[in-house]
Specification:
27% of the residues lie in helices and 35% in strands. The protein has three helices and six strands, in the order ββααβββαβ. The N and C termini lie far apart (35 Å).
Length: 126
């Protein structure tokens, strides 16, 4: 099982593969980010589960150990040889604190150990 942890400004964070138990909170976080997401659609809880189970995307849940909260999720998709696409969404209360930068670095460093060295980020104009 993948387990990644890091510290930032005295707070501890860890990253684990997403479980079905995480979906409700991930839905809340995704809904907060709708203006930044390509499809701008809020899905029901059951649609989120279906999406989670059927898409060829690996999701990682991001937790704040200090607050004991699930604070975001990280997506890995389109794996090819030594590359993949990455993306993430954070809960609004955790944005602007350098957490996303640290999560990207931690996940990319971890994946480098498995030979994945090229990463692509899809960025929307908004």
């Amino acid at each position: 099982m993948m387990y990644i942890n890091f510290e930032l400004n005295g707070s501890k964070y860890y990253i684990l593969p997403t479980k079905l138990d995480d979906i409700q909170e991930l839905k809340t976080i995704r809904d907060q980010c709708l203006e930044y997401i390509h499809d701008n659609k809020s899905y029901t809880y059951y649609e989120m589960i279906k999406w989670f189970l059927t898409k060829n995307i690996r999701y990682l849940s991001i937790f704040s150990e200090t607050d004991e909260n699930l604070i975001g999720y990280f997506r890995l998709s389109d794996f090819k040889d030594n590359s993949c696409y990455v993306g993430m969404d954070l809960h609004k209360d955790y944005r602007g604190k350098g957490i996303a930068f640290s999560v990207y670095n931690a996940v990319i460093d971890h994946l480098n150990n498995y030979g994945i060295v090229d990463f692509y980020l899809r960025v929307l104009q908004s």
